[in-house]
Specification:
The protein is an alpha+beta fold. The chain is built from 11 helices and 25 strands. The strands form 7 sheets. It has a 6-stranded mixed beta sheet, covered by helices on one side. The protein has a 5-stranded antiparallel beta sheet with strand order 18-19-20-9-21, with helices on one face.
Length: about 475
């Protein structure tokens, strides 16, 4: 069965179309064109700004003209992660979807339900003729996943509404009313290419099989980080003998927990046996430590030919020590909302550049600005102690919860009426664009909701089919119940 034949058909048909349009972060031209063509096809007014944000307007249904204006908001881009053995090009290839035990998944890649399903719901509502609603606009933002740059660039005229419903939450039955702010902190290690030392044994060590996940919403799970595991191995070798690096690569995106990492390294021939002994020991330790969350973690080693050159020993050693010292995971829990991670940091990626630099990217999140600054400072200190040049992104603000929100009260009432139980009202540790929206329009009343998506930002991403229909029913009733101005 193809996903476009699932119910409700309008949503799944549009989602199927969206999966056929390449939409990596910062490369949203094709999906923006898709939206503009959609608006033209259905006779709707659309606007695109310089940052590729798209706004589509739909007038109120007769008799609802005096209702508050609703902004339905989703983001266009998707996280582009794939398994290393899958030949796939996110800039040109359509996502290959499949249905499995009540879930929609992709074949070896991220699905893009984050936030393609939000876009699909918005398009379904825009084309409907039997949903009652007041004045409505649908806002599709660009580059949410790698910096919220679309939301940063939004002009105020794109947010001229009263209520904003963010369609980017990932747990059905939860209404989100707050989120963390975040920043990225990068350390740049500049190295010299040197001749490889004589009488060295050269090998490649790889870490694979980890589940990966979202560096915000999954950070409390304790998922394995491939960069940490790789560094743990290299550090243990370094305590016994010199370790020279020729290459290192781990992780990809700042908002994803690293699933794979590898390094090409050399040790004196006399310590060749220790490379295998240390690997076997760490494999046993990591397998035991992560049996419940990452049962398929795998460390492998293979002999390689002697490289032409290598990273100078001093820089390589400083890199290993810095990576081992950098914090990763939950730093602190909220004292106000039980179970909410307040502050965290993610050791996201390690990348070699052509200009003899190694860039280590980390991301920090917190619902408290001062603590966000504090963890950024800690990470910065580790980098500086290791001799790295440090840069930080501008970051994005958090969204302070408003438990007295009008749209929240209406949503709770509708949810209880439809499903005969109370929804959960939460704040999340992941970042949402809502903080930036509120900064630009402090009068906005906001809520975030969505169907259940698991494994976001990893090739295990999956969307629960049954929750999409429930979400649709809820949104239809919510639009009908929006109060008058």
């Amino acid at each position: 069965m193809e996903i476009k034949n699932l119910e409700p058909t309008p949503i799944w048909s549009f989602f199927d179309q969206i999966t056929q349009v390449p939409r990596p972060s910062k490369k949203e031209e094709k999906i923006a064109r898709f939206l503009l063509d959609f608006a033209d096809q259905y006779g709707l007014k659309a606007t695109k700004d310089a940052a590729n944000n798209v706004l589509i307007r739909k007038p109120a249904t007769p008799g609802k003209e005096n209702r508050k204006t609703v902004i339905l908001q989703s983001h266009m881009d998707m996280v582009c992660e794939k398994n290393s053995d899958i030949p796939f090009h996110f800039e040109s290839d359509p996502i290959q979807t499949r249905i499995e035990n009540g879930w929609v998944k992709a074949k070896g890649t991220t699905l893009g339900a984050d936030d393609g399903i939000g876009m699909a719901v918005a398009l379904a509502i825009l084309t409907s003729h039997d949903i009652e609603h007041g004045p409505m606009v649908c806002l599709f933002t660009s580059d949410e996943e790698t910096g919220l740059s679309g939301a940063f660039a939004l002009q105020k005229e794109f947010l001229t509404g009263d209520i904003l419903i963010n369609l980017d939450s990932e747990e059905w039955g939860e209404f989100c009313i707050g989120c963390a702010g975040g920043k990225n902190t990068m350390g740049a290690f500049t190295y010299r290419k040197t001749l490889v030392p004589a009488d060295y044994f050269w090998f490649e060590v790889c870490v694979s099989g980890l589940n990966g996940g979202h560096s915000g919403s999954d950070i409390h799970v304790g998922l394995g980080n491939a960069n940490q595991i790789l560094t743990r191995y290299l550090w243990s070798l370094l305590q016994e003998c010199p370790v020279v690096l020729a290459s290192v690569d781990g992780g990809n995106l700042s908002n994803a927990i690293a699933r794979e990492a590898r390094a090409t390294a050399g040790v004196p021939v006399a310590f060749k046996e220790q490379t295998r002994v240390r690997l076997n020991l760490l494999q046993a330790q990591v397998s035991a430590e992560s049996a419940k969350v990452d049962p398929n973690v795998q460390l492998s080693i293979q002999t390689v030919e002697t490289p032409q050159d290598c990273i100078d020993f001093e820089t390589g050693t400083a890199l290993i020590y810095a990576l081992y010292a950098l914090p990763h995971g939950v730093v602190g829990m909220s004292h106000e909302i039980p179970g909410l991670v307040e502050t965290s940091t993610n050791l996201a990626s390690v990348k070699m550049k052509d200009d003899c630099r190694i860039i280590v990217t980390t991301s920090q999140r917190s619902s408290t600005d001062s603590l966000k600054t504090d963890i950024v400072n800690k990470v910065t200190s580790v980098f500086r102690l290791a001799g790295a040049e440090v840069t930080t992104t501008e970051g994005y603000p958090g969204w302070k919860p408003n438990p007295d929100s009008t749209v929240l009260k209406v949503s709770e009432t509708i949810y209880e009426k439809l499903f005969h139980q109370k929804p959960k009202v939460i704040a999340i540790h992941a970042g949402l664009e809502c903080g930036l929206f509120f900064e630009k329009n402090p009068g906005l009343d906001m809520i975030s909701c969505g169907p259940t998506i698991l494994g976001a930002h990893s090739p295990d991403e999956r969307l629960e089919i049954a929750t999409v229909e429930k979400w649709w029913k809820f949104l239809v009733e919510l639009l009908k119940a929006i109060p008058a101005k």
